[in-house]
Automatic annotation (TrEMBL):
InterPro entries: GntR_C, TF_FadR/GntR_C, Tscrpt_reg_HTH_GntR, WH-like_DNA-bd_sf, WH_DNA-bd_sf. This is HTH gntR-type domain-containing protein. The keyword Transcription regulation applies. The keyword tRNA processing does not apply. It comes from the Bacteria. Keywords: DNA-binding, Transcription, Transcription regulation.
Length: 230
């Protein structure tokens, strides 16, 4: 193989790597905004606006938005991409999946957690306490996401971890409706505290029970608030 031929074969690999990196960067950023409620039910995500923000063509942006549609984060319309509106049935199904998966997954981390993860969990819990004291719904959402991510990142089964994260993210509508309610914030703080104690004691049974109670409380509170608004 000549030197010129070798140079030609390397060029597409570098180009593909840059494209993949750009696409993943856009995906991570848009998904983060969805998780934190920065993109709400009344917002529209337009590919040309995202392309302008990232100083790129619309093609990688379209790839990202269509991926988010396939994963259930967005819905494509003739006027851009929007956050799907969940029915009560959708919410019940999401909570059912979470009840089946999250308690056992959280309990499985008991033997592999370390001081670094403990510190992240503690900081997220302390942030939730501060959010409750300030009645700050946005801060509470951030604390809730950080706490879940901390233990979820320790789950060894990558497919299980991805599935849980996706369904938990789909419950963003629940968080937006409930975590800005002060009484609900207290429930969340108490639930986090029970889970944190289990994690710090490395007690899988306590972790599993606390996670079950946390999810059940979130579901009950969502429908209680929903019924109160009807």
């Amino acid at each position: 193989m000549t030197e010129d031929t070798a140079n030609v074969t390397k060029q597409p690999r570098r180009t593909a790597l840059r494209q993949t990196t750009l696409t993943e960067t856009i995906y991570t950023e848009i998904r983060k905004r969805l998780r934190h409620g920065e993109i709400g039910p009344d917002d529209r995500v337009l590919d040309y606006e995202v392309a302008n923000e990232f100083d790129c063509t619309r093609m990688p942006v379209r790839q990202v938005l269509l991926r988010l549609v396939s994963e259930g984060y967005l819905l494509g319309t003739t006027r851009g991409f929007v956050v799907p509106t969940l029915t009560s049935g959708d919410v019940r199904e999401i909570f059912e999946v979470r009840r089946l998966l999250e308690p056992s997954a959280a309990a499985s981390t008991a033997a592999i957690l370390d001081d670094r993860v403990d510190d992240v969990l503690k900081r997220a819990y302390q942030k939730a306490v501060k959010a409750y004291e300030k009645d700050d719904g946005d801060m509470m959402i951030e604390a809730n996401v950080a706490f879940r991510d901390a233990w979820l990142d320790a789950v060894q089964n990558s497919r299980l971890r991805t599935t849980i994260r996706r369904f938990a993210d789909h419950a963003q509508q629940v968080r937006l409706r409930t975590l800005k309610d002060h009484a609900t914030q207290k429930i969340v703080v108490d639930g986090m505290h029970a889970m944190l104690e289990g994690f710090l004691q490395r007690d899988p049974k306590q972790i599993k029970l606390a996670t079950q109670n946390f999810i059940a409380s979130a579901e009950q509170r969502y429908f209680a608030l929903l019924d109160g608004e009807d």
